[in-house]
Amino acid sequence: MKRQRNRLDVGARIDRSRRLRFHFNGKPYEGFAGDTLASALLANGVRVVARSFKYHRPRGIYSAGMEEPNALVQLGGGASSEPNLRATQVELFDGLEAASVNCWPSVNFDIWAFNDRVSGLLPAGFYYKTFMWPKSFWHSYEKVIRKGAGLGTAPEMPDHNIYEKRHQHCDVLVVGGGPAGISAALAAGRSGARVILADEQAELGGALLGNGERIEAASGVDWAMGARAELDGMDEVRVLSRTTAFGYYDHNYVLMVERVNDHLGAPPGTLRQRLWKIRARQVVLATGSIERPMVFADNDRPGVMLAGAARTYINRFGVKPGNRAVLYGNNDHIHQVALDLADAGVRVEAVVDVRAKAVGEAVAAVRERGIEVMAGHAVGGALGKKRLRGVEVLALNEKGDGFAGDIRRLRCDLLCLSGGWTPTVHLFSQSGGKLDYSENQACFLPGEARQAVSVAGAANGVFALKGCLGEGAAAGRSAAGKLGFREVGAPEALPVAQGEAGALMPVWRLPPVSKGERRFVDLHGDVTVSDIELAAREGYSANEHLKRYTSTGMGPDQGRTGNMHALGILADIRGESIPAVGTTTFRPPYTPVPYGVMAGRDVGVLADPVRMTAMHGWHERSGAVFDDVGQWKRPWYFPRTGEGMAAAVRRECIAARSGVAILDASTLGKIDIQGPDAAKFLNRVYTNSWNKLAVGRCRYGLMLGEDGMVMDDGVTSRLAENHYFMTTTSGGAARVMAWLEDWLQCEWPELKVYLTSVTEQWATLSISGPNARRLLSELAEGVDLEADAFPHMVVRSGKVAGIEARISRVSFTGELGYEVSVATSYGLALWQAFQRVGENYDLTPIGTEALHVLRAEKGYIAVGHDTDGSVTPGDLGMDWIVSKKKDFIGRRSLARADTMRTDRKHFVGLLPETRVPEGAQIVAEYKRRPPMKMIGHVTSCYDSAALGRPIALALIAGGRERIGETVTIPLTLQGRVVKAEITSPVFYDPKGERLNG
Amino acid sequence: MLRIECPHCGARDEAEFSCGGEAHIARPKEPDKLSDAEWADYLYMRTNPKGILAERWCHTFGCRRWFNIERDTVSHEILRVYAMGEPRRESGT
Predict the structure, then answer these.
(1) What is the pLDDT of residues B5-24, one digit of tens each?
(2) Among A205, A401, A508, A541, which residue is least crowded by beta carbons within 10 Å?
């Protein structure tokens, strides 16, 4: 293992006594506790860490934070592997393994780098222009392009990490733990308010961790540590480190992700990340700012870095990011960084400043150190390929928008850039706040707020430390004050030495120095100045169009370092101001968030509730295969040993038609309806009349939406004068209940009707078949089951197997049938009693599949199966159930011209040659190739044991007038064509004699 | 996510509620007397204003009661919570 050759001997926030070993692209290295993967790689002299997205150019570490466009890595392997992490944010741990994401076979020799030579073929929009023809080739292109433009590999196995979610309320949420955020949290916390301070980094301090500035007599870092200790001592204050607020929603709802154990490599069995859902009464955003680079030819060479990043590597990580440096920029920061570099032993070749008059304290200090300041100059291009070898510097003309004079070459292996600062206004913008453009700071600043939020410090365009501390404290005090918390004691004034700063001079683009050079605006997406110019020429000159056409501002870094340049260049091309061009929309999440933490613990069996009937255990023991109906588990069929589905269903159907079958019907929706206006209410929600239904009788009802379309159906019985019991479809129960409540509460509050959902309270079984009565008579007490005393559509109370029960004589199979309902806790006992007695009758448990076959043989509709929200009662041939004498929900819609068309799709039967899939299209005139006119589709299709052939139900245009015609069902994907005859939907016992048996 | 003041249960997250769309759309007393266009207007046409909208909400995962709110569709500020059946405010008041 090589020694860390770029590591400084003293200082910084790392623990040199704790060595951590790690692998990068298969090679072993060593770093220290407190390092990021990026700082450890720099310490080890690793220059090329990635290949770029499109041209596969060698790239080095560019930043020290979340804005990193180059150093994307894949962390770990197997199920826990995570792609596209920024090496600048990955905290080093012992045993860490990482690899570059976009190179093959290796980062130093990348086959795809030929793209860089042929880049003329890959301009902006190439994706849309080149690969769309011929159309059929797209599938081939896509595979190759996806591999070439890789962004790491998503793990294919389930994520075994543990995640959780937490809801939290607070008075003041402070986002950002730099000087402004700390000051805000201190001020709010001291007033007694409940405060949450969330910060992305491992420790508080923000910019202070990297810039070496001092507060009072202490270092900025010591001040931050002192503040942390004070905050930790406050009962109502919670400090969340390694926590990123990534989404700001309505009513001050903020989502944050806390990386609990990632810095330890998320050991198995520990909580990896936590999602915080914060509802804050006031929010203070102290989210800081991101440094902008400068744009010139080959500005992506490894060794080119943001000035603030270089400073951070020295001061925070004790790493010398180069040996010989040039600094280039348009503001005082490069001069401050030049001093830090010189102090760390880096040879500073020159400071290139575009400002003709570079004055101010920092500039003077640089000159004093004997470092050359090249005022009124610009870097035209970088030299070198896999590492920076030097820069070409030119003088600027008087206007500062072009070059004058000759090229001068400077040798260097580090070039530090500062093009000013872009305030991090993402969360503020997500909150609905307006942005205002500041001409003299060349950036967008928070304007008018829409929610209870304020912005402090660099995020508000206040970049100097003194201002950050003051504004932060004021924001915290004001936020708490608005909620009635008054600060105890006077606010402290923190003395900070602050020199005069010179003004910034924005330079978005300079003319090219030579032809064909590549000046990158968005390093991650490989978007150059020429790409933006081309996009504008081709008409994509609106900022949102530009973004999509060139992909500038996309990807894991979201163009944090390049967006303002893209905007400035576009404004320049259009000859308009930057605010006239405007920003693209800021959308959550601020940084990528793993799906795992969004799901939290709601995975596997906890993803969705599973509803089981009282008899579920019996079904399981009896080998039932289950069918998911909504959240319910229903037996689909009960195969005997060695029996397939078709055989089992056939056997179950034969039992129901010739002996007796038993079905668990507990999942039916059940609504208890009481009150003197109950009948009036039923009249309004069902299509048929309920005026004359006698106590003890049942009636089938059809429910429509106000649009006249069938919504649900079921049998309702009248138990007493003002007491009804409604059943709904299993899947529609909750919806129907909500629908009825809506009408009662909002439209007809004068009706005295009370609804109670009792689906879970009643267990129901249904027996059907010629032997149903004989079977039931063995268990029922006190109820006369004889046909005359207990006819079809009657309900009685009594005891069954010694249990209080409701017995209704209803049928969904067309056979003699009874439904027996008991309190849910007796459901299993009732079921078992039937099984015991049923042995003498060969009682056969049946599942939902057999039930569907049996009801289809009778032409009974299954709502949501044969109907789809576009079917009226008339379409179903069910005009007999639609009252002409009263109004009901949906009635007026049945009189609309469209619902009265005679060529609407009718519900009919089909006799297909073979079984066809449900949903299959039906044509009248078959052609060998599409298009063909489709006249309808198959809604249900089964093999009928009773008919000894496949039967189907279908919706066919004008179907009732086509009975007897033969239609065609082309099954192109299966390579077959099926003919079918249109029939009545009632295939079996059309006179309905059996259920009266 | 909105924070809605249920008149019965207090302030809760929007996830506990369902929205029933625009409020104060009474069902016509005599639908048969309406033209198709008038009926379609009742069924489908909503004002969709940029600004203050009266809406029906139901505290579905709470008390299951319906109520009205006035919400600014631009700022999402909830200006008023009032009972079902209570009249809307005159505009401008």
Answers:
(1) 999 999 999 999 999 999 99
(2) A401
C-beta separation of A681 from A748 below 8 A: yes
pLDDT interval class at A153 (50, 70, 90)? confident
| CA separation for the pair A623, A12 (Å, rounded) | 67
Residue A436: which residues within 8 A CB-CB, separation 6 or more? A444, A445, A446, A447, A579
A441: phi > 0 → left, psi -120 to 50 → alpha, else beta; which? alpha
- Tokens 């980094």 locate to A201
Q: According to the model, what pLDDT value does residue A148 have?
A: 55
Torsion of CA B84, B87, B88, B92, to 10 degrees: -150
Q: For residue A364, what pLDDT is reported? A: 93
Task: Tell me the residues of chain A between 405 and 434 that have a Cβ less than 8 Å away from chain B.
Answer: 432
Q: Which tokens hold the place of A116?
A: 């860089």
Say if A602 is an interface residue toward chain B (CB within 8 Å). no
Q: Which residue of A has its CA nearest to B84?
A: A746
Per-residue pLDDT of chain B (93 residues; tens, 9 = 90+): 999 999 999 999 999 999 999 999 999 999 999 999 999 999 999 999 999 999 999 999 999 999 999 999 999 999 999 999 999 887 644
A279 chain-B contacts, CB cut-off 8 A: 3, 13
Q: Across chain A, what does the average pLDDT equal? A: 93
The pLDDT, as a whole number, for residue A930 is 87
Answer yes or no: are the C-beta atoms of A412 and A324 closer than 8 Å. Answer: yes
Residue pLDDT, tens place only, A727-740:
999 999 999 999 99
The nearest alpha carbon in chain B to A277 belongs to B1
- Structural domains in chain A, sorted by start: 15-134 (3.10.20.440), 162-289+423-482 (3.50.50.60), 291-355+370-421+502-581 (3.50.50.60), 625-667+761-869 (3.30.1360.120), 669-758+872-889 (3.30.70.1400), 901-996 (2.40.30.110)
Compute the average pLDDT of residues A771-793. 96
- E strands, B1-93, in order: 3-6, 10-13, 18-22, 52-58, 66-72, 78-83
Residues 242-271 of A with CB under 8 A from B: 249-251, 253
> What confidence tier does A127 reach under pLDDT thresholds 50, 70, 90?
low
Q: What percent of chain A has pLDDT over 70?
A: 94
DSSP string, A42-99: HHTT----EE-TTT--EE----SSTT-SS-EEEES-GGG-EEEEETTT-B--TTEEEE
* Spatial distance between the Cα atoms of A418 and A395, rounded to a whole number of angstroms: 18
List of residues 6+ apart from A827 with CB closer than 8 A: A613, A614, A615, A666, A763, A765
Residues in A touching B84 (Cβ below 8 Å): 745-746, 749
Q: What angle do CA A316, A87, A286 make, to 5 degrees?
A: 60
Phi and psi (nearest 5°) for A18? -110, 100
Angstrom distance (rounded) from CA A90 to CA A509: 33
ipTM, 2 decimals? 0.97
Write out A544-579 in H/E/C secondary structure: HHHHHHHCCCCCCCCCCCCHHHHHHHHHHHHCCCHH
Q: Which domains does chain B have, with CATH numbers?
A: 3-25+36-83 (3.30.2270.10)
- CB B58 to CB A450 under 8 A? no
Return the biggest CA–CA distance within chain B.
43
* Chain B closest-CA separation from residue A706 CA (Å): 7
> Which residues from chain A sit within 8 angstroms of residue B39, using beta carbons?
892-893, 896
Contacts of A728 (CB under 8 A, 6+ apart): A668, A669, A670, A671, A712, A713, A714, A736, A737
Q: Which of A554, A322, A490 is nearest to A415 (CA)?
A: A322
Average pLDDT over residues A24-32: 96
Distance CA A757, CA A737 (A): 7
